[in-house]
Amino acid sequence: xxxYFEFDTKAKILSGDxxxxxxxxxxxIRGKNKPLVLSDRGLDKLGLVGTAIKNxxxxxxxxxxxxxxxxxxxxxxxxxxxxxxxxxxxxxxVGGGSVIDTAKxxxxxxVSGVSDLGKIEGADAIVxxxxxxxxxxxxxxxxxxxxxxxxVIKDNIKGAKLEYISSFIxxxxxxxxxxxxxxxxxxxxxxxxxxxxxxxxEAYTCLQKNPISDGFAIxxxxxxxxxxxxxxxNPKDVExxxxxxxxxxxxGASFSNSMVGAVHSIGHSLGAVCSVAHGDAMAILLPxxxxxxxxxxxxxxxxxxxxxNPEKFVSTPKSERAEAFICEVEGLLERLNKSCxxxxxxxxxxKVKKENFDEIVTKAMNDGSAIVxxxxxxxxxxxxxxxxxx
Amino acid sequence: xxxLICKVFAxxxxxxxxxxxxxxxxxxxxxxxxxxxxxxxxxxSMDRNTAVxxxxxxxxxxxxxxxxxxxxVIEFKTLDLALKTMTGQKGLSQAYAQHDFVLKGSINEVxxxxxxxxxxxxxxxxxxxxxxxxxxxPARKISMFKTYILAIFGA
Lengths: 390, 155
Ligand SMILES: [Zn+2]
Prior knowledge:
Oligomer: heterodimer
Largest sheet of chain A: 6 strands, parallel
Helix content of chain A: 40-55%
Structural class of chain A: alpha/beta
CATH architecture of the largest domain in chain A: Up-down Bundle
Bound molecules: zinc ion
Shape of chain A: globular
Number of helices of chain B: 7
Number of strands of chain A: 9
Structural class of chain B: alpha+beta
Strand order of the largest sheet of chain A: 1-9-6-4-2-3
Radius of gyration of chain A: 20 Å
Low-confidence stretches of chain B: none
CATH topology of the largest domain in chain A: Dehydroquinate synthase-like, alpha domain
CATH class of chain B: Alpha Beta
Number of helices of chain A: 15
Strand content of chain B: 15-25%
Number of domains of chain B: 1
């Protein structure tokens, strides 16, 4: 196959102790005075967004805290109007995937000058006419959304999910402050970190892998295997929290460029059809999809064993390393299941029935990630994975 | 010249899809899932308006001349990139992964189109070529020779 790749990344990463306190400087050097801060009601109630605003030292700003669980075109339009009418000059998103996706929608609308988002859906389809400074402050360590050029926004009128891939929705600054993730409960910490681990493993093995995304993926896998269980067993471990935040961010940069595969195709579909939480779906599906892909990318899985368990890598013959790495992933998931109740089967979620399989399969086949999985997805293959995961 | 070659190959892709719509359930299932009246447009260059537009009708597919609002447009970034995919030197999924084209419209809907194109390509190109461009070569339902004959003389 022809050897060509693109690696698109942008954010200046502010990572570590009191990272939020450095945002004021970033705004100053970029000549910005009045951010619009986006978040959701849950984070507002927890006091997390208030802490973020205080620690960023914002003086003049406006807010929008009504971002719904699924970002929608209506919300994007409302926020865009607010941005314009209140004279804001940049966007700060404090939250998880849906807050950052909403902010990306707003940026998309402002950058393109197009108010009907349905008209600019697609990949690389946006033409930039304006500049908008965009700062992302993730409050989970998982999605890596602060480093990705992808956004999914629901169009409630058409009943469709609009998907965008564009350089222009990459945040300019990503802020990884441990204060934002230190209070995450162990189970959410585990499922979001497994999402990041899945991003890294899929990025390392998907069709568009490249030397740069490989480097990011490896660093992320190493950090997650070193820190995740430590943090789940001791949630106040600040160093571990920082490691997981870094792991999620760099896995985001990795998969945004090499793309993700079948774990995500089926996982997105399980979310849409049965409301299975994204991280849970990743934990349940990952080993089964890895076994499907092993025939094509077994050598690559084998290479990753050294980052999960260096001693095992040395003592395992090359031909057995792929299976040994899958067993390491399974072992991690089983231990997390015991320590914090992370779901490892579809039955454990209580949300998926065999009657749902047909719809799950159809949606998974049409997910954008299906096209880059090393083994092509067929209906039979997806059913087989679902049955094994049940 | 390159535009013309792209158009000829795209024409065979369209004709092949029509032929296989009647003879291969994999293509039929994908095409039946397309929106009626909606279309996939293959645009070979960003500066010229030449495109082959394949529209879904009640009974199958038809070709139309112009791109309409709501069509899904696959617009190659350069004519050389279009040539590679249209002549089977590169798979459509690989072209997508390598950002060879701008995609205007629903990414989800393009997945079914891509699968249908891969089955059609498997009937139009020799196996030695297919191994280099597809992750897995779909089995042929009819021979390459028969596909071309039907594509030229009527489905
Ligand atoms: Zn994910």
